[in-house]
Amino acid sequence: MTTPLSTTTMYDTGFNDSDLTVSTNTTPTDVFYFYKTEQISFLCVLFIFIIVGNSMVILTITLTKNRRSRMNFFILNLAIADLSAGLVNVFTDMIWKTTIDWHAGLVGCKLVRYFMGVVTYASTYALVALSIDRLDAIARPLSFTGSHLRSRVLVGLSWASAMLFSLPMLIINETKIINGSCQCWIEFPQPWFWKLYITTIAIVLFFIPAVIIAVCYIIIVVIIWTKTTLQVSAPKGKHRYIKNGGHVYAAANNARFKDSATSSRGLIPKAKIKTIKMTLVIVLVFIICWSPYFVFDLVDVYLNVPRTQDMVAASTFIQSLAPLNSAANPIIYFGFNAKMCIGILKKGWKHNSPTSQSQLTSI
């Protein structure tokens, strides 16, 4: 049985010690120092992007007039989770790869690993909560408006689930001396334990959230499609007809239909469509960043791929994709709200909010 080395990962989420096992031709010390300079440099750049980007999102939402809107509430929760991932996961990994040895002791090993798991789960489940909320906004616009109870419940459940699912980290992580180097370590007696462990993590952290998010957006697309209005031209003086979800409504030529979520005809406001587009992009980036991570881990643990230096290099690159998700989310947010964010950041220190607000902040 090969020996798992968690410290060889480019980005340590606290779960994954089996993804970089070492072949008989590679000593643990060799792997500890493999691309050390490149890894630390990458982590430093990543750390700066995560901290600065998510801090700016939190600041922008805090200075926004409609900061208590449900959409802003969920974006703020996502930014806090991503910021925590940077402070706990990336910063710890930077220190660990610099010192090589683990200096925090057994209690520190268990606690640090636990909190690494919590912030990783929380970042993922924040996206699940956001997707469910967007579905609620589209499917039940009348009951959605003005109610914040469901949003608090969703966010509370996401963090509670993250804390619950991370509890095994307090049990399975131990400190161990490896070639004279103290490491925070996960070690199972049989290879099938690793298969069960990695499979469980992949299902709970990636596949189940991805399925829930996919179902939410499939339903959202169906609802938007059925609620799309079609205005049919009619001769002057006659009525015009509005088709919506299989029902036809008559209206005078001079009638104007307000683009409102509370409309009896179920019209979808443009601002709400904008939030759907933004969250969809965030979700797609999440899948792009995390899918190589888990696919590689599952292939590695089930096929028992020999751990050569080339494989370590490939794994180093693949593992580096996961934390990009926490760095990309602020970029996506600012990309969809550039004018609003610039205005708020310019005027925020003098006023509580800019004169004009983006429609996005009120949904």
List the helices and strands and how they pair.
Elements: E1 3-4, E2 21-22, H1 28-32, H2 36-62, H3 70-99, H4 105-139, H5 141-144, H6 149-165, H7 169-172, E3 173-178, E4 181-186, H8 191-227, E5 230-232, E6 240-244, E7 247-251, H9 270-303, H10 309-319, H11 324-336, H12 338-347
Antiparallel strand pairs: 1-2, 3-4, 5-6, 6-7
Helix pairs in contact: 2-3, 2-11, 3-4, 3-11, 4-6, 4-8, 4-9, 8-9, 9-11
Instruction: Name the CATH superfamily classification of the largest domain.
Output: Rhodopsin 7-helix transmembrane proteins
Low-confidence spans: 1-11, 18-29, 229-266, 352-363
**Overall pLDDT level:** 75
- The Rg value, from CA coordinates, equals 24 Å
Instruction: Compute the number of helices.
Output: 12
Under the CATH scheme, the architecture of the largest domain is: Up-down Bundle
Count of all domains: 2
Sketch the topology as an H/E string, one letter per element.
EEHHHHHHHEEHEEEHHHH
First-last Cα distance: 54 Å
Shape estimate: globular
**CATH fold category name of the largest domain:** Rhopdopsin 7-helix transmembrane proteins
Range of helix content: 55-70%
